Fold:
Amino acid sequence: MPQLLEQPRTRAARYARPQTILIIDDDDAMVDVLSQRLSRQGYEIVVAASGDEGLAIARDRRPNLVLLDLRLPDADGFSVCQQLADDSGTCAIPVIILSGMERPDIIRRSRAAGCQYYVRKPYDPNALLILVQHAMGEADRWS
Structure:
């Protein structure tokens, strides 16, 4: 399996508070892989296994980014994404949906719910890292 690209770290970056990524997914194997790879890149990872738990964490912790699965035990990812977009405290947090769903309307529904990016599983881990960095860079410009 390809490794994520290592990013050069400046002295200031080593001492700065790490950016936080909230992963909302009930697939333990997927969460473990994502958590390990993103942690190695210097991100702080917070995990939620359900939509309600993810929404509570997002409202409390205000992560820099949310990685969201569409199939959750208590809700679908579209409704979670919509609730994040509708909440004034979380609406500026970029959301990347990671899903294996292939229906043609998925991307349209994801965007309508407030998702900025959709990535189909299985995904290229290096491409996902670049997208994560890009999404958080765009969010920094608006906050």
Notes: Strands lie at 20-24, 44-48, 65-68, 95-99, 117-120.
